[in-house]
Amino acid sequence: MKKILNNKNTRTNLITYLVVIVAFVIMQTLYSLDMLSNSMKGYLVPICAYVSLAVSLNLLVGVCGELSLGHAGFMGIGAFSGVVIAALLKDVIASDVLRLLCAMVFGGLLAGALGFLIGIPVLRLRGDYLAIVTLAFGEIVKNLVGNLYVGIDSDGFHMAISTSRMELLEGGTYLIAGPKGATGVEKLASFPMGFVLVLLTLFVVLNLINSKEGRAIKAVRDNRIAAESVGINVTAFRMKAFVVSAFLAGMAGALFGMNYSSFTASKFNFNTSINILVFVVLGGMGNILGSVISATALYVLPEAMRGLEDFRMLLYAVVLILVMLFTWSPKVKEKTEVVSEWVKGLFYKLTGKKEVGVNE
Amino acid sequence: MQIIQYLINGISIGAVYAIIALGYTMVYGIAKMLNFAHGDVIMVGAYISFCVTNYLGAPAWVALIAAMAVCTVLGIVIEGLAYKPLRGTPSLAVLITAIGVSYFLQNAAQLIWSSSPKSFTSIVTMKPISLLDGQLVITGEVLVTVAVSALVMVGLTLFTGKTRTGKAMRAVSEDRDAAQLMGINVNRTISTTFAIGSALAAVAGVLLCSTVPTLQPTTGSMPGIRAFTAAVLGGIGSIPGAMLGGILIGIIETFAKAYISTQLSDAVVFSVLIIILLVKPAGLLGKQVQEKV
Amino acid sequence: MNEYSRKILKVPTYTLLREQDISKQPVLDVRNLGIDFGGLTAVDSFNITIGPTEISGLIGPNGAGKTTIFNLLTGVYQPTRGSVLINGIDIKGMPIHKVNRLGIARTFQNIRLFTDMTVLDNVKVGMHNSIHCSFADSMLRLPAYFKSEKMSNEKAMELLSFMGLADEADVKAGSLPYGIQRRLEIVRALATNPSIILLDEPAAGMNPSETAELMNQIRRIRDTFHIAIFLIEHDMNLVMNVCEAIAVVNYGRIIAKGTPEEIRQDPAVIEAYLGREEGKA
């Protein structure tokens, strides 16, 4: 046991799990004691979804070194397919939890399968080109789902991508109605399920990173040609990371969707992809715990600033730029050190005086 | 006849994309960064032009020059404050900062000009030309846009080929360290590139809003993304590539809207991009660089 | 004598085989290899045969095409002409990782380590294909995972101590001094369980005592693992002392082949290195 704890990787992983579990227990306790504000209650499930999305994107961007700008596309696929499955299984499975689970797994599988399909051509590209193609993918998904009609009527199940409204028979219901998006969604998502999803994501990603596969993926990131020269099939490992990441994003998407009674395809646009990427970069590339914390903090931040009305997003933008400058710029770092030394000095001086004052 | 009309419209909007794409491509070639805030500089340019004509009552050319001046300064300021300190850091850090700048510009515009759309009066006063008994109509905007973008491309090609600054820009894009050792002021060259790119963005903004006359804080983002797509399609870093990519994207978009559907035009445009990149991974006119082992 | 070696003996100019290897199948058999880069011939008519436990060298002036040849042998470049056989199998059209699995490993002139990973992990990446642990095993942390991790750790440590790098196991590869990085590249190449390793300027940037140690290590690698070694090196002391056979290239073509003694006296080699003397021609 002691030996295991001495291993740095294992220790970081345990801390990550511990932070998540403790956070869940605290929030759940507050929730059951009814000490949370209504808006805070509303954040819980989206936070879990975004944490999973950030962690899964970190696998791609931080660990694998591939810039993806289309993560929201996989999230959207998961959300819409999850909603459909949950509605279809309504009469088959009685338990809400089980139905949500089915929806999430199906959403994940579909996103993973699509990830595999588009990965075949797309993963031939590198760097900024991969970024633009994933961006294009996200836009295509958003565009297609925005014109997707899924409905049930007495004739059974109907599905069409159409620019004009798909007509159903009398008494039929639309599950997805083109530009109006998913409507009449059952709100199956719950905070405990969100917690389970986060745990599962962490389990998959952390286990993957600390395995033979993870080493291969990191090797590909550090030096592609050297990795190939020691016998690693670079394409296969980029693909594995891509599919796993898409799968997890799909699951998170399904959970996210089931938290609202209706949502449209525009929810999963370029800006959402970018937001998830911001979580990853600010949390630290390859740093899983960092992703968890930054996704939570940055999701709550703009919401918490609602009081500032119009200035809220402006402030968010400024915070974003400043954080990037302070964490990355060598010059700014130097200057902040000088300033912090000065502040420290001042602080000691002031507190020193204060103490003297108290003693007198 | 209808098809030729669509083609003309496509070339016209494509010419606007081409001017924006030129800005993207120059900045990418030299600073090796995806400047996602470029689309929002377009929007600022359009707003400036709007204000100068509507509130000051100045003529169109004054508005255009004012927009270019403001955007040039804005470009230099953005580069100096947000991007320069991050030079040499991983490209992702710069990308996120660019996104921050983009959010900033959009939200600042929303505070200043509110989010309700303004109707932009075209700066072109030329009468439309009617050909073949009115079967074919070429508006003044189309002629001006195409002429301006052709002029911009020729100008830029001459500038990068003949002038000292232009040659310095090419040297920096080829090999920044070597250029520095040859005595080229890399920082100034990059600033100049941003200045030129932003001035072009202002021109593009005015032309864009002359063609599509609604102006709001998000006006720049979608054309920005399309133009970025165009730059990649043509081969990012290449000036003729940006031109070609812009026109192609414009034509594809117009045809997709006309013959497939308006709602699915994005899907068509982006699918074409993916397909072309699979066949030519460095874009149509980009050069494939093989990694040295 | 098998048919294969008889075929080789028919064309004795191709061979660099040591006496004791003559009856065995060569690990590396290169025939008429050539590559053009946009009309410019970088390598042409390159022939070489290397036996299973041979240490051979490839020398030549800067820009002679030595690294290009290594890139051709490992599948980084696809040749314009000719063929490369590793353990009798033609590598034509194979991706780099498959070529490696045929039994050829290499180091790089401009070191290519996985800089953000530890020294131990660098070696374990090299052992990737010999670690038997499925995706499910590692995802679910089944016993097979722990077993394979334990085994690969032990084997990697063994290889590291063999090259005197055991103390550095937990250090990030990128932070190591230059000479150690070069040795780590050799360990990583060895970890792929090759039958021949290509060393691209292994002594570059090393001081004389490090070079002397490297010479011993190269011999020890051959004697311990019974594999062939093919190296590019500018340090003539190392080449002449360690290599049993040497090929000299200039302008992408072989200008001489033979034992160190023969090479030392070859007029073509002397000319390539020292230039034609005035008046002598």
Describe this structure in words.
- The complex is a heterotrimer of chains A (360), B (293) and C (281).
- Chain A has 360 residues and is mainly alpha-helical.
- Chain A has 14 helices and three strands.
- In chain A, a hairpin with a 2-residue loop joins strand 1 and strand 2.
- Chain A is globular and about 80 Å long.
- Chain B is mainly α.
- Chain B has a domain at 14-218.
- In chain B, 72% of the residues lie in helices and 3% in strands.
- In chain B, helix 2 packs antiparallel against helix 3 (60-83).
- The longest helix of chain B has 30 residues, at 2-31.
- Chain B starts with a helix and ends in a 14-residue tail after the last helix.
- Chain C contains eleven helices and ten strands.
- The longest helix of chain C is centred in the middle third of the chain and has 20 residues, at 143-162.
- The chains are: A mainly alpha (360), B mainly alpha (293), C alpha/beta (281).
- Chains in contact: A-B, A-C.
- At the A-C interface, helix 7, helix 8 and helix 9 of A face helix 3, helix 4, helix 5, helix 6 and helix 7 of C.
How is this fold's topology laid out?
The complex is a heterotrimer of chains A (360), B (293) and C (281).
Chain A: H1 2-6, H2 8-32, H3 38-63, H4 71-88, H5 96-122, H6 127-145, E1 148-153, E2 156-161, E3 173-177, H7 191-209, H8 212-222, H9 224-229, H10 234-257, H11 270-283, H12 288-304, H13 311-328, H14 330-359
Chain B: H1 2-31, H2 38-55, H3 60-83, H4 91-113, E1 118-119, E2 129-131, E3 136-138, H5 140-162, H6 164-174, H7 176-181, H8 186-211, E4 214-215, H9 221-234, H10 239-260, H11 265-279
Antiparallel strand pairs in B: 1-4, 2-3
Helix pairs in contact in B: 1-5, 1-8, 1-9, 1-10, 2-3, 2-4, 2-8, 2-9, 3-8, 5-6, 5-8, 6-8, 9-10, 9-11, 10-11
Chain C: H1 3-10, E1 28-37, E2 40-50, E3 55-59, H2 66-73, E4 81-86, E5 89-90, H3 96-101, E6 104-106, H4 119-126, H5 135-140, H6 143-162, H7 178-191, E7 196-200, H8 208-225, E8 228-232, H9 236-242, E9 245-250, E10 253-258, H10 260-265, H11 267-274
Parallel strand pairs in C: 3-8, 3-9, 6-7, 7-8
Antiparallel strand pairs in C: 1-2, 1-4, 4-5, 9-10
Helix pairs in contact in C: 4-7
